[in-house]
Design a protein that fits this description.
- This protein is mainly alpha-helical.
- Helix content is 53%, strand content 0%.
- The chain has six helices and no strands.
- The longest helix has 23 residues.
- The radius of gyration is 16 Å and the shape is globular.
- The protein starts with 17 loop residues before the first helix and ends in a 15-residue tail after the last helix.
Amino acid sequence: MKQTKGNRMSDVQKMRSAQETAKRLLVLASVCAVADDSSLRKEVIDYSWRAEAFYVLGWALGLEPDLQPPTDQASSGNILEQIPAPGESVATFVNEVMLRPASEIQNAAEDLYNAHSRCRAAELQNRTERHGYDIEVAQERHRAINWLICYQGADWDDVATDT
C-alpha cells in the first residue's frame, strides 16, 4: 500500500459492509432521481456531485468495471441499469452485492487522496495545472471513498476530505 504523509490508512477503522454500501447507493439514486425532476438549480448542482459518490460506491460494489481518474464527471448509466428501479424490491440486491477486495478499495482511496491533494496544492500555489484532475470531482470521490473505508469513523454527512 502506498504511504502518504501521516500514514492515512492507519486511520481506517474498518470497511463498510456491502449491504451498508448498497443501501447508501440506493439512497443516492433516489436523491439523484428527485433532483433530476426538480427545476431548482441548487438541487441539480447537488445532484451532479452526488453522482460522483454514486459512481464510487457503484464501482466498489462491482457495478462499474473501472474507477476512472477524477478528470471529468462520471457517467452512472451503467450502474443505474443494475440497481432496482423505483418501486422494485431492493432486498435481493442489497443481500447479494459484494464489495471489491479491501486492498483494491484501499488503493483507490490512496489514489483519490493523492489526486485531491495535488489539486489542493496547486490551488494553494495559484497554479492552474491540476495534473489533469478536476478538483471538485476529486473531492466528491474522495469523500465517498473515505466514507466507505470508515476514515476517522465518520458518518456520511461528516466525512472529512483532508489532504
